[in-house]
Amino acid sequence: MASEQLWSQVAEKWQTSFNRLNRNEPGITGLLTFSEAWVLARDFLRPRDIDEPSPKSTVNRQQLRAAFDNLAQRRMLTALLEEFLEDMRWQLPHITKDIEGLMKQYEATSDPIFIAGCISRLVLWHKAWAPFPELGPTVVNAFTNTFQTHVFSVLPRSFSHGFKSLVSATLNPEYATEPPVWITTLFPQSGPPPDRWDKPLWQAFEQLGMTERYESLIASVCYEHVEAHMIETYSKVWDRECLSEARDWMSQHILPWLLMPYAPNAKTVEEAAPFISGIGTRLDYHVCKTLADLRTREIFDIIVDFPDSRPALDDLKKCILRVDHRSTLVKTLRKENAHRLLHPGADTKMILQQYVSIIKCLRIIDPQGVLLFKVADPIRRYLRERPDTIRCVVASLVADHESGDSLVDENDTVQPLQQAQVDDYSDLNWEPEPQDAGPDFRTNKPSDIISTLVSIYDSQDLFIKELQVLLAQRLLAIKDGNFDRERRNIEVLKIRFGEAQLQVCEVMLRDMTDSRRTDQHIQSQKNNDTTQLHPTIISRHFWPSLQTNTFTMPGQFKTIQDAYQKEFKTFKPDKKLVWMSHLGTISLDIELDDRTVSADVPPLEAAIIELFSQKDIWTIDELIETIGSIERPAAVKALGTWIELGVIKEEDANTFRLLQVADAAASSKTTQRPQAMAVEDEVPIVTAQQQQAEQMKVFWKFIEGMLRNLGSLPVDRIQQMLKFAPGYDRSVEQLGQFMEAAKREGLVSVKDGMWKLS
Amino acid sequence: MKVKVKNWHAIAQWRWDTGTSSDTHDADDEGDVCGICRVPYEGCCPSCKMPGDDCPLIWGECTHIFHMHCLLKWIGTAASKQQCPMDRRPWVTAERKINN
User: Fold this and answer.
1) pLDDT digits (tens, 9 = 90+) for B36-47
2) Could you identify which of A190, A484, A728, B44 might form a hypothetical disulfide with B55, taking C-beta atoms 3.0 to 4.6 angstroms apart as the criterion?
3) Which residues in chain B (36-55) have CB-CB distances under 8 A to chain A?
4) What number is the ipTM of this complex?
5) What domains appear along chain A, each with residue ranges and CATH number?
6) What is the percentage of chain A residues whose pLDDT exceeds 90?
7) Strand B2-16 and strand A536-539: pairing?
8) CB neighbours of residue A739 within 10 Å
9) Interfacial B residues in 9-38 facing A (CB < 8 Å)
């Protein structure tokens, strides 16, 4: 029953198929023609080894067409296609062999020419096997799919590398003028030569579907090329804006190239625009990123070069807007600073200079100051620990603009120091802080450099103190009585620090003018025998502590001083003078038997030579005893000056004799340098730091007493008690440091945080 | 040998000649202070900015010395009863003898 039904079903199907193939032709003639057509078509399509002669040319096209029509009528094309693909699978090992051979050669030589060869072979295979386009897109697509699937499956791993180098060869500028020889041999072109030499190659890629498959590879070649070009061209080029230049270069050199892989069929640039806009944007981003990376790497040197490197900074600013690079920049600059700037080998002045440049540069890149805030923090912390930072800042405050010491532009308008500002809620131009601003970021309204430098320290007092010291040094060193410059400096600083802070300096300057007036008055007196002496009379308490190993000048110096003192008393009856004999300079003529030596010397030297006019031979101990309250090294140094000048000679150890007649050996020296070198020591003014140490000595007495009476104490307790001492303003940390120092000197010992006398 | 001084740029401090600690050369010595404002004589009284001739001293018969401005201010108050703030004797300004 069932089988009968089956039978009839099969018979019915068979009849339908037969009718389809036979096309109602009489007998089986239809079937026969179909069979003929099938063989013909299949034989025509069958893929062959391309090294064997192709039979295609011998086939009669008319006949072939009829055969295909026949097959199409019988709806057998699908079957034919399957057959064809099956045949192709059988033939594929030919291609595999071909590819393997060429790739082996490539692997051995790494020459992309073999890749080009490989591709050219593949194109030949492809062309030879490709079925008629008239067969319809289905057939062509199926063929292409199978072909590509196979080819890509057998291409070895090294192919992608070779492909990359082949693609990059197309970017080789040398080939642009003189295309490589292989291009014409491997990819022969009919018709006029293409507008780009590499066009046939791209067409081959397109044909084999490689453009699509290796798109990322092609893009990476392009990226690498752009990167290499930019690094080569723009490294250390800071004096012109490179970004626009790079963009021009892109549109001139890279864009035409991009047309090949991305818009192969476009005739004009306008037509190609939609195809390449995507990759174009990505490339532009890449250009910005490359430049930003490059400039970030160079940022430290760019800053060193500022302001010559201004264009580079403008570039960087634009790039950073495009690519989010701020954190990298901060990180790099911080690292560079730590590595190259904030180390003991760097001069404080240099650090400050670089800091100022960093401020200026980062303000160009990021006017809101977030970058600066982040970068500056370690520098400021480091500077705070440097002992001479204040002095450097102050020195630059009062420096000559001509000497180049100054950190500030002369053009900067002088303005009062700015304190941290609170937000102005009524500011209509208010802008939120950038999103990478830290929680402790304060919007610094563009303040001037000096305010920024001064704000390194919490208090301005330190600066004022140091300024006072510096001013004292300069004023006392002035010989010609011209201190207009100092006055101008003080006026400028008054604007910055405020009048009240600089009151002390004002007194110092007035002392200078008063001294001159007093001196003029005294010199104009009759029977005046003090014409040589021109003292600067200072108000104590208003000048920084001057070192006080004051001694009495001997001989004629004392006479001159006393005479001056007397004149002064007449002029100002209720005042008197206390000579600071160790300060100042004296111009002397030493008249010896055979020569006269002139010298500008400090008073101690003068005192010593004066003593030699009393007797010819002195020992150093006698000299010290006679002059009194001078230190031995100072005396030795003073004697050294005269030995240098050939005036005295060390006979035995520590015994010196005046050379009334020049020593043969020494005189040659003196004739070489008849004019004595001006001894220009720094005026020995106690620096703020020394003052602190000096003060600490006083407190040490308290500490010593405390520890003696109370046994051992923790630092906190000592600090508490010291707070009762007048003028004590140290922090616990400072006290801790001091105690450590005392421990090093073996004065105290510490156990479990308890200090006691050792 | 003869040492000839051509030019001498010296540094000196001025002091009020109070007649007392005249011989101290110790510059570290803070010096005597005005009994009213507790500022050294060579400093200036709280209402002055410039020391020296702008803020002179005043000597009393009682040998006490003050900044002139400080004393005048004190004398100007009713509570002073024209007395020296140190010893409560009537204030009499001493004539400065210019001899030494």
Assistant:
1) 988 888 888 888
2) B44
3) 40, 42-43, 49-53
4) 0.87
5) 33-213 (no CATH), 260-424+434-459 (no CATH), 463-513 (no CATH), 545-672 (3.30.230.130), 688-757 (1.10.10.10)
6) 0
7) parallel
8) 18
9) 9-17, 22, 25-28, 31
